[in-house]
Design goal:
Layout lengths: L1 E8 L5 H15 L3 E8 L15 E3 L4 H8 L3 E4 L5 H10 L2 E4 L13 E2 L5 E2 L6 H7 L9 H16 L6 E4 L2 H9 L7 E3 L22 E5 L8 H15 L4 E5 L5 H11 L3 E5 L3 H10 L2 E4 L9 H7 L5 E5 L13 E5 L5 H11 L3 H15 L4 H24 L3
Helix pairs in contact: 3-5, 7-8, 7-11, 10-12
């Protein structure tokens, strides 16, 4: 079977590309012929680094004709920036969309309002979004940009009916795309897996607490690090021990977060971006992973990565996080409808309430992570490819 991967970037710029770099060699190992159509990047390295020799085309004049000559059985799309190109592919070939994010469901793509306070947004994309965008702080402050984004997102939403299948990583994302018109019989829950981590072969052994709590990720307002900085001293006071916050990541909100940490007197180590080995080492040395996202994470893969080494998580129950963060089992959570640092602190206190409870959470986190494997993901994905390809052949021949 021939599968065309359609994506924005060939270079590794985020989670989508990291996912593709991990999936493409596995698909080739299963015997699939692969090609890639991308909107940006150099046609070597990046997402195709593990599959040398695959055909690669950059979007532009003649790209669709090249794809038509290659004759894919299935197009596996990952949210192109040009909705017209998305439509062109889906109209010509059986196409499967993996909805990694909120493209087609939100003007800014964050599904989050910032005024009067941070709160996930449950609005269905439509004209009402334009009325709420500026006063509720849904994105930037430029109305021209707002209108341009809105038109593009509406076009992406209109494409949902063209896809033979729409795949999502979490129950939350399934509900979101269902509300936005993805046909129920084409919607599939296909959870992600951590590309660079596997669960430890043995359950974690009981160990002495380090009183280190870890944040991993891009330091943006939506990731909630400043909520965390407010929550940590509250939790420290309640458990009677100082907690050190370790931040592995960087981003535009780092300066403000550093100032907040000084103001609250929080012991904090800003590591900047670290490689996977250092990240794993920090996970092994911490008591909990903190996931204080104030926007609805589509999945929150970092929690599964932490679970691979027996590190439980504490975070807001937003978006896809409840799919892997089970209170009292793989970590502890705070309500996500109106994120509140005091509630986050209470969840952190629960996680660290006793050595016995923390050890149960470590074991539960590892057991949780063991469910999210590349084998399980590929099995579901390949089933979808075969079903879509078969339906496409029937449609092409006019068979019943």
């Amino acid at each position: 079977m021939r599968v065309l991967i359609a994506t924005r970037h060939l270079s590794i710029v985020g989670g989508v590309e990291t996912y593709l770099r991990a999936v493409l060699p596995r698909l080739r190992d299963y015997g699939f012929d692969l090609a890639v159509l991308a909107e940006h990047g150099e046609p070597s390295g990046g997402v195709v680094s593990g599959v040398p020799g695959v055909p690669v085309w950059l979007a532009g004049a003649g790209a669709i004709a090249e794809v038509e000559r290659w004759v894919p059985d299935v197009v596996y799309a990952h949210g192109l920036g040009d909705p017209n190109l998305e439509a062109a592919l889906a109209d010509r070939f059986p196409t499967v969309l993996y909805a990694h994010n909120y493209q087609g469901t939100c003007v800014s793509g964050t599904k989050c309002q910032t005024r009067p306070e941070f709160a996930p947004c449950a609005r269905v994309l439509g004209p009402g979004c334009l009325a709420a965008y500026l006063p509720r702080g849904c994105g930037g402050r430029n109305p021209v940009t707002m209108l341009s984004l809105y038109r593009s997102q509406r076009r992406s939403r209109s494409n949902l009916g063209r896809y033979r299948a729409v795949l999502v990583a979490s129950a939350h994302m399934a509900a979101e795309f269902r509300r936005h018109g993805a046909p129920e019989d084409r919607l599939r829950l296909v959870p992600l897996f951590p590309p660079d981590a596997v669960p430890d072969p043995k359950p974690p052994e009981s160990r002495q607490r380090s009183d280190r709590v870890l944040f991993v990720g891009r330091v943006t307002v939506q990731k909630g690090l400043r909520h965390l900085i407010e929550a940590v001293p509250i939790a420290s006071a309640r458990i009677g021990r100082p907690l050190t916050l370790v931040v592995a990541g960087d981003g535009p909100d780092r300066g403000a977060a550093e100032s907040e940490a000084k103001r609250h007197g929080v012991p904090v180590e800003f590591l900047g971006w670290v490689d996977s080995a250092r990240r794993t080492g920090e996970m092994r040395g911490a008591d909990v992973l903190l996931v204080p996202s104030v926007w609805p994470e589509p999945f929150g893969l970092v929690g599964v990565e932490a679970g691979c080494v027996g590190l439980p998580a504490v975070g807001y129950a937003t978006g896809g996080i409840p799919d892997w963060l089970s209170p009292g089992v793989s970590g502890e959570s705070a309500p996500g409808e109106r994120p509140d640092p005091k509630e986050l602190a209470a969840a952190l206190v629960r996680a660290l309430s006793s050595e016995k409870h923390l050890q149960r959470l470590r074991v539960g986190a590892r057991e949780m992570a063991a469910r999210f494997t590349p084998e399980a993901h590929l099995a579901q994905l390949i089933d979808v490819f075969h079903a879509v390809s078969h339906a496409g052949r029937l449609a092409a021949t006019g068979a019943k």
